[in-house]
Amino acid sequence: MGAVTTRRGLLLGRRETRRRVLPPGVTLESLTACTGCSRCVERCPTHIISLLDERPTLDFSGGECTFCGDCARACPEPVFVVLGSTQLAHVVAVGDGCLARNNVACQSCRDACPQEAIRFRPRAGGPFLPDVNVDSCSGCGACMGVCPVGAIGITERLEEGVHA
């Protein structure tokens, strides 16, 4: 996963970048084989794959990755090299803007997580605080789209270079 400057940002002189979030089974090395045909985009049942600079990237704002493999089966090139992958190269991280961290009761991320990787631990004098079990987190993004304040981001897994 790397930061990519958008064309619009470049033309407008902005340094804002979007992070490339690789689909399951794609590595940075295999990404070079992508021709930008968009078959993976068309086949994704949750519509989270889009093209960024003619290469696939994931956007969890409207859905999650179900690891169905439709994108890999649709791709005519050797881009999806780790077949049957059920984990992405990142895990979620709950930021400071989280409602629960700001004394507002909210657990929508926990409710959306299919792996039950987000738990809330009690604290004295306020709402429970979110805690992400990175070993259980698949990086599917289910929690990101449901967060009412967009406080959930992603961070690399500890194993460098593994984008499975």
UniProtKB/TrEMBL annotation:
Gene3D superfamilies: 3.30.70.20
Annotated GO MF terms: 4 iron, 4 sulfur cluster binding; metal ion binding
A Pfam family matched in the record: Fer4_9
The UniProt record lists the keyword Repeat: yes
Keyword Repeat: yes
Entry-linked SUPFAM superfamilies: 4Fe-4S ferredoxins (SSF54862)
Keywords: 4Fe-4S, Iron, Iron-sulfur, Metal-binding, Repeat
Protein name: Ferredoxin-type protein NapF
Species in which this protein is naturally found: Ensifer oleiphilus
